[in-house]
Amino acid sequence: MSPPPRAIILDLGNVLVFHDNALLFRRLGTRAGLPPPEAERRLAGAGWTAANRGLVGGEGIRRDVCGALGVDLPAEEFNALWSSHFTVHEAVLPRVEGLVGRVKLVLLSNTNVLHMEWLRPRLPVLERFDHLVLSCEVGFVKPEPAIYQEALEHAGCEPHEAAFFDDIPEFVQAANALGIRGHLFTTAQAFDAQLKALGL
């Protein structure tokens, strides 16, 4: 049996917070006078990756999204809409708090500057992490190996000494390919069982 991991690396979306993209497209579409499928079609593509890589800042995201939707929203209204699809996953927060001081805690997320600006004050548990590896700050995105290496460096451990939790199978598989103990995150209850199986 393997020893307990020295580090836990957690995803953000659908782990610490839920994100309902269908709701986001519906709300943006309504504001632009477009049906949700059309709003989604217009917003699909490389723009998301550019924002997640940090190639586009907050104002650039607003311009790109508004341009795609054919509407010009003031920054305050746009920023509120752009993050209106998040809900804090309250059930998982005590589990994360319970890991503080027992392992290195690292967040590993594909995200953009506006979403992080909105989430930080609403998710104080982020202050309990040893480090946040955010794609928009490091320039890499999951499933690229470089972003996992970044997380391991901040965790100060070897791949096999870290356990990684994400809701997207492709990202879990990428972690496993590097020797990290990857696990698919589903529910807070399942997370309990996974941590117990890891010896935590």
TrEMBL record:
InterPro entries linked: HAD-like_sf, HAD-SF_hydro_IA, HAD_sf, PGP-like_dom2
Q: Which domain of life is it from?
A: Bacteria
Q: Which UniProt keywords apply?
A: Hydrolase
One of the record's GO molecular function terms: hydrolase activity
Pfam families, per the entry: Hydrolase (PF00702)
What name does the UniProt record give this protein? Answer: Hydrolase of the HAD superfamily
